[in-house]
Recover the amino acids of this structure.
């Protein structure tokens, strides 16, 4: 058994993983505006409630930049106080078992490759559309993270008057005074402005996918995150945008898939324990 943990600016999600199955899943508010020690204490208390002698390791996915060799969280996005946190050392000292720390988008990719929609492919890019944009990359069945775990930060590439993060995630909806969940509800109830917003979002996501095709040319792109709930509202415009990619064979061969397992990041985090 292993513990998988997914830490975002909103929640600390945890589960005991055994044989690809999750047991004793819990969700605890991160309270990201609190001091670093308070958040670490909440994390250790959450782990302490489920730890037992059968657990052989802990895998943690954190949003932001992580030094995977040392397990130091250099900069946790949306957790302002988490700068240069030696998370691996803290948890190993507290619980006495191996701890592995990685970026949450990489854990999402790892989970999809071995437990989700990517099991049939050796080259995949996993795209998280949430507050921002995160990307995890699997090349020839190996997680590609770059020397600073920063590979795939395509969301930060310049796009229009800002970057992809401001057009392909929740930030675009915030700009219009709403969020993806509310915009989805309104669009489904016939709100033309929200329907148009989803369609424009689809065009932006399509342009993001074209950037992925130019950069990595994967066999499959797997999408997850908050915005995926509105897939039926943005898919048409997204696919129309992708069809404008100049290499026809690439478009014909790539599979664009949607994640179907809400716990796949937990599975991927637990899989860090080898």
């Amino acid at each position: 058994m292993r513990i998988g943990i997914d830490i975002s600016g909103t929640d600390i999600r945890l589960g005991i993983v055994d044989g690809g199955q999750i047991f004793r899943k819990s969700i605890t508010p991160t309270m990201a505006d609190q001091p670093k020690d308070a958040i670490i204490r909440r994390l250790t208390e959450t782990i302490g409630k489920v730890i037992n002698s059968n657990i052989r390791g802990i895998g943690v996915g954190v949003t932001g930049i992580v030094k995977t060799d040392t397990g130091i969280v250099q900069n946790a996005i949306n957790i302002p106080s988490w700068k240069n946190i030696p998370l691996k050392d803290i948890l190993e000292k507290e619980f006495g078992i191996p701890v592995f720390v990685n970026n949450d988008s990489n854990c999402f990719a790892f989970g999809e490759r071995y437990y989700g929609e990517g099991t049939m492919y050796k080259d995949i890019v996993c795209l998280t559309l949430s507050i921002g944009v995160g990307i995890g990359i699997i090349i020839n069945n190996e997680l590609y993270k770059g020397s600073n775990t920063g590979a795939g930060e395509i969301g930060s590439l310049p796009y229009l008057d800002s970057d992809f993060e401001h057009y392909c995630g929740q930030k675009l909806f915030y700009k219009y005074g709403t969020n993806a969940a509310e915009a989805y509800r309104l669009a489904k109830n016939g709100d033309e402005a929200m329907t148009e917003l989803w369609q424009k979002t689809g065009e932006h996501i399509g342009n993001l996918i074209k950037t992925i095709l130019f950069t990595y040319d994967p066999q499959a792109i797997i999408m997850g995150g908050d915005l995926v709930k509105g897939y039926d509202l943005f898919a048409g415009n997204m696919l129309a945008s992708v069809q404008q990619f100049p290499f026809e064979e690439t478009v014909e061969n790539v599979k664009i898939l949607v994640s179907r397992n809400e716990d796949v990041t937990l599975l991927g985090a637990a899989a860090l324990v080898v």
Remarks:
- The two ends are 11 Å apart (CA to CA).
- DSSP finds ten helices and 15 strands in the chain.
- The mean pLDDT is 93.
- The chain has two domains: 2-106+264-270, 120-258.
